[in-house]
C-alpha cells in the first residue's frame, strides 16, 4: 500500500504529497490567460486569412497541438505567467512544397506589411513561426496533409533561415493523432480528482479564488486531469528550470516526455509516487539506449515515421546529461518522502521554483493559522517577494526561458 494511503478507502496525505499537490495547482495556467490565448488563436487565424494575405483561401484547418491539446500547459517561470502554446495550420498546398516556401508563406501571412498587427511580433523559427506577446508565445506550425494516410497525418517542415536548401527537409508528423492517443492512455482518476477538488476548497466551503473563474471551452480543470498528467506537468516544470540555466543546450522535447508518460500511466499511486515512477520510466529508456551506445528513439504511437527525438539527444553526452539530471531529481523526491518541513521547502524550492513553493507554504500557514518557518526562501511581509534562499540542492541565476516548441527547443 503506497505511503499516504489509509485503510477503509479513505486516503490521507503525507506532508510531501500535500505540498506537491498545492504546487501542481499553482503552476496551472490561470483561466483568464487561457481565455486570452483562445481569443488570440482566433485572431491569428482570421489575420492569416485576411484579404491580401498570401494564405488567403489556402488554410484548411487550424487546431491546437502540444501542451494545449493534451492539457499540460504550465507557467514557464517562477515569477510570472509566461507560457508557450502551439497551433497547427493545415495548408491547402502541394505536399511536396519546398520546406522554406511553406514557412515563408506562414511568416509573410503573419508579419503582414510594416507597421501592421504582427509586424514586430513575428519571429521565424526552424519549424514554426512564433507570435510574441508579453505573457505568451504562440507557435504556428504549417502542416500539409498527406494523401492515403490516417486523418491529420502530414508533412511539417524543417528549414532554418539562412541555411542551404540541402539542409531542409519534410518530416512526416501526426500531432493530432498523438493527442488522441495520449487522452486514451491517461483517463482521469476519480479518487485523485476528488482529492484535488478537496484541496481547492476554502475553509468556508467555497471554491478558492483560482477556481472561481469558469474555464473557457476546451480547458480541462485540474481535478479532471489524470494523475499521470499532473505528474508530467511537474516534470516539465523541473526540466524547464534546469534548461533555462543552460541557454546553449537543447532541452528534451516535451512530446517525448509526454509519450513516455502515456506508455507508463495507470495504477494507484500518490502524486509523489507518480512523479518518481514517470521520471524513472523515462530514465530507464535513456539508460537502455545508453548501454548500447545509441541515442534513444521515441516515435509517435499513432504514426511510426514521426520521430519525436530527431533533434534530441544530439549525442550520447546530451543523453547522459539528462540521465544525471533525472538521477538527482528522483533522489531528491525520494528524500522528500521522509523529509522534515524545513527540508521539504528546500527540496521543492529547488525542484519547482522558490516563489511557487514559498506561496504554497505561506497559504498553508494561513489556512492552518500557524507560522511556517524554514531556513530556505523567506518572504517579505505583505509583498510575498522572495528575499533570500539557502537551497543546497543546486541553483542558478534566473534567465528568460529559451524558446521551446512542441518538437523541442528551436535553433
Could you characterize the architecture of this molecule?
With 411 residues, this protein is an alpha+beta fold. The chain has two domains: 31-182, 2-Layer Sandwich (Beta Polymerase, domain 2); 188-409, no CATH class. The protein has helices spanning 15-26, 31-48, 66-70, 99-111, 175-185, 190-199, 227-244, 254-263, 271-291, 316-336, 341-352, 354-368; strands at 59-65, 83-91, 122-124, 129-132, 136-145, 154-158, 169-173, 299-300, 303-307, 378-379, 386-388, 404-405, 408-409. The strands form four sheets. Strands 1, 2, 3, 4, 5, 6 and 7 form a seven-stranded mixed beta sheet that branches. A two-stranded antiparallel sheet has the order 8-9. A hairpin with a 2-residue loop joins strand 12 and strand 13. Helix 1 (15-26) packs across helix 12 and helix 11 packs antiparallel against helix 12 (354-368). The radius of gyration is 22 Å and the shape is globular.
